[in-house]
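FAQ: What does the model actually see?

It sees only this:
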Amino acid sequence: MLGGNYSNSNDLALAMVISLPLCLGLLFLTRNRLWKAAWALAMLAMAYVVFLTGSRAGFISLMISAGVCLWHFAIRGRRRYILLLVPMVGIILWLTSGDMLSRRLKGTVDEKDDAASAYGSAQQRQQLFWRSIEITAEHPLFGVGPGNFEQVSGYWLVTHNAFTQVSSEGGLPALIMYVLILWRGFTNLRTTKRIASSRTESSVLTGVLHASLIGYVVGSVFASVGFQFFPYILVAYTTALFSIAKNTAPDSKGSKSVSQSTLKNEEDTDTTESVLSWNPG
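And it is asked to produce this:
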């Protein structure tokens, strides 16, 4: 990890949060018990990594992503055992991963208990946020160029917010496009959910991609990942899943629409032939 793409603890935690729901989907879809155990161990390892990083953004996005998974699979999917299993695993991970995360969460709002510079980091990120808004207002059309916020901000730090990163470095048109791309991902999943039957592969993958995408959006509020591959691969997955669901699921509405259109054309043809062949004599 050192010196690589995930040397930053927030980026590493976000990568784990995005991957966790996908592993859950693969666990549900496989019938091999050995593979189920392998996916379960992978999920435990990734969740443990999120706790070890001490990333507050990663922890928040993990909690929200887990909540979405519980809604899709424990409540709507009627897998009630997950409601008991997930809190138990969460408590065990919390107790065994050390106190770095709890100290940083506490230090975020307590200036006197500034654990690992948590309070100072939170204050600095607020300053970076407002500075990125100022730069967006100064360069609304094209921004200052990808990766150049550090040079012009006066802090030599990134924005720590994907949305203001895109707006300050790419301009407001880039921000609009970025938001529309994310919105398309959620639209694809909503349409796929309506097309796919419950407990099918498409339905399971819709739920896990929904959790991953929401986890990304929440985590991106605290990380400069607007130009990384995270959101675009997720949206590409939703597009592929929507295409698969549309081509494989029975489309009763489409069939009905086609049948009505065909029937109407046949009636129009019969009427035209009757008029042309009518002989008053």
